[in-house]
Design brief:
CATH architecture of the largest domain: Orthogonal Bundle
Oligomer: single chain
Strand content: 5-15%
Bound molecules: iron/sulfur cluster
Helix content: 40-55%
Number of helices: 14
Number of domains: 2
Order of helices and strands: HHHHHHHHHHHHEEEEHEEEH
Low-confidence stretches: none
CATH topology of the largest domain: Endonuclease III, domain 1
Mean pLDDT: 95
Number of strands: 7
């Protein structure tokens, strides 16, 4: 057994964690502000995304949308453009909608009542606890991936961290440990500990401020925790995409506003069927999606990209428009654009991987 049981020494644990956090926390821009909107922006971005990535997006986003009113009044496409490359685009769409509701129903003020805040689109348990504790000092414990890993190790918990049914166990323990006199700082300290010391690989136990409370350290079982249920193999899909040119312009289509990559623009294409060549799939998909007949002119490149639950291998072709009038089936909008206009539209990362290879010569067809 560890020298001190964490749940029997809550105050000592809180003090050790708090002292360490005050001295060692990283200076991050969202920790330098008390603005509810700015902190909310950071927490939406930080969901599923590493700090170093968020740092590239945070200031430009605030420069484009300095307050909730600016965000609410802007067009969804401009929000998606500012979010381009950050992934999980439902976050941006929900945040934009939430800003509009805050302006319509809450006089442009971020609700300080957790129940009202949690009714906003995209505000789940994590965002609610993080924003409400940091901004409004509400005693709500965060149990994100970093916190669950720390708790699993401190308490040598058998509950798999990647199983939804485990969440309530982690949340209950996080709530028991929460320092209700400074819940925002406590939550940030737990997350910081997980991100910088109790890391997924090679935790830095020698420099851990709560080592004396840690059961897995005491029992020499650090490398066995947290427990995870084995993940299913990630499927890989073969995709064919066509860059269709006509009269010096390229065809792009917009995905429906909901679902994966909702609202983003892309070049038309889709899955290659069994026993089908990528070239034939490209021609077929363009016919099915936009009702155009095209012929393949050349092969551009192959792109590989991994999403959370699947991977794609994408063959990209340069196609020449032959005939037909665009009729949309699945996409919700389309444009014939010049190469100069590409940067006006938000595209998924996988498309960006080949966009740089679409040279001006393509546009002469
Ligand atoms: Fe994590 Fe090691 Fe600290 Fe335990 S002692 S909480 S395993 S860093």
């Amino acid at each position: 057994m560890p020298k001190k049981s964490i749940l029997k020494s809550v105050t000592q644990f809180q003090t050790a964690l708090s002292d360490w956090y005050r001295q060692h926390h990283r200076k991050l821009p969202w920790r330098e502000t008390a603005c509810p909107y700015q902190i909310w922006v950071s927490e939406v971005m930080l969901q599923q995304t590493q700090v170093k990535t968020v740092l590239r997006y945070y200031h430009p986003f605030l420069a484009a949308f300095p307050d909730v009113g600016h965000l609410a009044r802007t067009d969804t496409q401009a929000v998606l453009k500012a979010w381009e490359g950050l992934g999980y685009y439902a976050r941006a769409r929900n945040f934009h909608r939430a800003a509009q509701i805050v302006c319509d129903r809450h006089n442009g003020l971020v609700p300080s009542n957790p129940a009202d805040f949690q009714k906003l689109p995209g505000v789940g348990d994590y965002i609610a606890a993080a924003v409400q504790s940091i901004v409004f000092n509400r005693p709500l414990a965060v149990a994100d991936g970093n916190v669950k890993r720390v708790l699993a190790r401190l308490n040598q918990m058998p509950n798999p961290v990647n199983q939804a049914s485990s969440y309530r166990h982690f949340k209950a323990i996080a709530t028991q440990l929460l320092d209700t006199t400074q819940p925002g700082q406590f939550n940030q300290a737990m997350m910081e500990l997980g991100a910088t010391v109790c890391r997924p690989q090679k935790p830095d136990c020698d420099n851990c401020p709560v080592q004396s409370f840690c059961q897995v350290f005491e029992n020499n079982r650090v490398d066995k925790y947290p427990r995870r249920t084995p993940s299913k193999p990630i499927p890989e899909y073969h995709i064919a995409v066509g860059v269709v040119s006509h009269n010096g312009r390229l065809l792009i289509t917009r995905r429906a506003d909901h679902g994966l990559l909702g609202g983003l623009w892309e070049f038309p294409g889709g899955k290659v069927c069994k026993h089908e060549t990528a070239e034939n799939a490209c021609i077929r998909e363009i016919r099915e999606e936009v009702n155009l007949e095209v012929k393949i002119l050349s092969y551009i490149t192959q792109v590989k990209h991994a999403y959370t639950h699947f991977k794609i291998v994408m063959d990209v072709f340069h196609c020449l428009y032959l005939s037909g009038k665009v009729k949309l089936n699945s996409p919700v909008d389309y444009k014939w654009i010049t190469s100069d206009e590409i940067s006006n539209y938000p595209f998924p990362k996988a498309n960006h991987k080949f966009i740089r290879r679409i040279f001006i010569p393509l546009l002469t067809f």
